[in-house]
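Lab notes, practical 5.
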Amino acid sequence: MADLKIDILVIPTYNTFTLGVMDNSTYVTDPPTVTSPTIEITAPGFDAVSLSFTFNSLNIFTSEDLEITEVGEDTCAIPDGVYYLTYSVDDGGTIVAIEKSIIRVDKLLQKFDESFMTLDMMECDKALKAQSKVHLTSVYFFIQGAIAAANNCAVMESDKLYQKADAMLDSFINNNCGCTGNNYLITYF
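Output from the prediction step:
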């Protein structure tokens, strides 16, 4: 039908163990008369899995659902990276589908949050803490760049930005960013 507009949104769950996908479609009738709502999800490094989907709802998927872990094994964190999603419904014999690619950065954001929380905002060494904040702000921009690139189908660029943010965070964690405060003083004052 001309009025049927299917759409999905990936919703943050703030949990590395779940992937939330919301039905954001505009159906002609309520409840929808279309049938067989299905989502196909391809996680990075894994085969595509086809899963049933619930209309007008937030659907939560785990590593077991995505066949990242075997049935019966403990659920594990879902990997970061580019995901391909295809949502489809049967509209009276016609399959209507929408495809999206997104980048999942939940593990990276968790690492970022942990790094950010190590900053003592009230510490006396203002230049050193300011440099740490500048470094983490740069990391955050790389993360946002990775998300923007994935949202615009620039998968290779997205991966480069993600890897750069991850490397910068590792450097920050392992070397306390290597900051002396001098860079902040020279660059910003």
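Observations recorded by the TA: The helical segments are 106-117, 126-151, 155-175, 182-188. The chain has two domains: 8-104, 106-188.
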